[in-house]
Amino acid sequence: MFGWLGRSAARGILTTRYPDAPPTPSEAPVSAHAPEPRPAVPISPNAVAGCPVRAIAPDGVDQGRCIRCARCLAQGFEFSGPVALATAKRPDRPEGPGAILGGAAPLARLGRSIHVFLVDVGSCNACNLEVLSIAHPQYDASRLGIFFTNSPRHADVLLVVGVPTEAMVEPLRRAYDAIPAPKAVVATGACAIRGGVFEGTPGLRSGVDEIVPVDLYVPGCPPPPVAVLDALLRLIGRERTEAPT
Amino acid sequence: MTRAGWEVEAGDDGPVEDGKRALAYRADDGALALYNDYDRGRSILRTPKIPGTWSVRTAPAPGAHPLAAAAEVAGYGTFTFPYGPISAGVPEAGKFEVRTYGERVLGLVPVGGFKTRSVATSVLGLPVADAGLRVERMAGNLSASHVSAFLAAAESAEGRPVPTAELYVRALAQELQRLYNHVRQIARVAEAAAQNVGLAQVHALGEEILRLQGSVFGHRWMFGALLPGGPARRVDAADRDRLEHALGGIGAEFDVLWSLLLESRTFVDRLQSTAPLSKESAIASGAVGPTLRASGVGWDDRLRAPTPPYTDLFVSLPNETAGDALARILVRGAEIQASLVILEQLFDRWPTEESITEPAESPVGPGRGIARVEAPNGDLVYDVTVADGRVRRLQFRSPSAANWPAFAASMQDAVFTDFHFAFESFGLVFAETDG
């Protein structure tokens, strides 16, 4: 036991200062940032045609579809956008440029501390692990009043990852119904938003919001832990706000 | 709903030793079979030469298969306890049907199919590079192994030359991911044993590996980093120096945590003799990877069926014979140390810039390719047919799919509180089983 105590003391504090400080490069590698066209570079037809998930249109990028494959980097794009993209609207092109990049007003549906219930409806496992890692020492969500719970009856937030398969439609509905009101649903990752790389595959639903109402969408494939933290903090009105310049 | 696990193949098209099972991958005319004859040190992939000579049973014979036997246990007071698909202990969508009369597990049947995204059929007709984006999302925590096996099979199908440096990048990605997965598996077992301080320390180490992957490949899970024929991202000398330095720290940290964990009697006692799998039962159920190596069979594709650059490396083979949860965790711990040695060897022998040849402009021709890779949780096989640069057929056998029957067999006569120790020691992933 004293060995562990000594180890903990020797390592010091590992936990990020987020949301009090911006995410560091090690917390948010290049692909954690949203892809945007380089300044003064128009979106080329090659970029539109070369996007494997049709996230790029001539007038903007659908961050909800983007899987951060980095192909557009050769077509005048760069990973320069924000890391925290959680938005209350579906980050879809048809809803206008304002909805594309998130930055939505604080949602604050819930107050103080929240308990999160994670449901996988057909993910590749990367989103599951990124979401769970917010409880690990480097992020330590419990310091912000965010906890995971093992029962939907104890939960405030339903956090859904993966592209919904037909077999998971009913279990997801039941999990949603089991959560007492007030509750919030967070669709995490490209698969949960629009189906991601699997969009259009027969037998799969294109997005969690076809099954349960969604309050927040968290783009990314998978979203890094700081983006997941940002989304959950938005629900309690404690998200990081940039200082006015 | 399909039962996870693989059907036992009955027929054959050539000389097979008596009693040696062959596992079929798929019941169509392009079947691929694996003969496991570990007593003679053989595990051979075969493609039947004459279509139709294989009689693939769609359901295992009652009693012949651990999963079938488990489903049939009956007796006074027995009932089937459904666990999943949304459950507290397993962070994935999957279900277990536990046959029990209370506490003792009389039989356990893993039920998959909740995460079927039809990756193998949805890539048909796509260019190889685009298909790779879906294949790496077969299982995010095993992406490097899946995409390396897929690309190796596709490149061999097309006859596309691959620069040596790219093979080194793929091996680097695989070994980093092996470190991450083994560290995470150890953390999950520590969590089940309520070793909370150790758990936090081991999780912190896992996060450091993810950050390292992110800083080298630009993506924490290395999605999009590996491409057919050539590297999407060159790992240059500065990257390698940074990696060597960081891995030295991770290795030293792991050694300390590992010895502290193994000093904890409560941790070791809880794992010892939990969910045992005998050598015979491991072979009969078709187990692969650390599961097989913990039961006394030393098969590792990196040593026994190596492809470059593993042909040039010294790979140690950590083996255990007890076959219990502790043995499987000990194998993983030893493999972390072995992978760090492998990574050092990779950096020492990294091809110089002069010896990198640019990939050929156009692939040579259509064909079928088969590749085998030792993923963190076992032997992974891809069988890909490519024509005109597009995927025409894709089959694969994931290590999880191979290990489900072994898991079910090890849980027979266990108690339900053993479940998490057993499950986490096997490293099973529903995502790659369902495909």
Structure report:
The complex is a heterodimer of chains A (245) and B (435). Helices cover 23% and strands 13% of the residues of chain A. Chain A has 7 helices and 9 strands; from the N terminus they run αβαβββαβαββαβαβα. Chain B is an alpha+beta fold and 435 residues long. Chain B folds into 2 domains: 2-112, no CATH class; 119-434, Cytochrome-c3 Hydrogenase, chain B (Orthogonal Bundle). In chain B, 42% of the residues lie in helices and 14% in strands. In chain B, the strands form 3 sheets. In chain B, strands 1-8-7-6 form a 4-stranded antiparallel beta sheet. Chain B has a 4-stranded antiparallel beta sheet with strand order 2-3-4-5, with no helix packed on it. In chain B, strand 3 and strand 4 form a beta hairpin. The two termini of chain B are 13 Å apart. Chains A and B meet through helix 1, strand 5, helix 4 and helix 5 of A and helix 3, helix 6 and helix 7 of B.
Summarize the structure.
Chain A is 23% helix and 13% strand. Chain A has helices spanning 2-11, 45-50, 97-100, 126-132, 166-178, 190-194, 225-235; strands at 35-37, 56-57, 60-61, 77-79, 114-120, 146-148, 157-161, 184-188, 216-218. The longest helix of chain A has 13 residues, at 166-178.
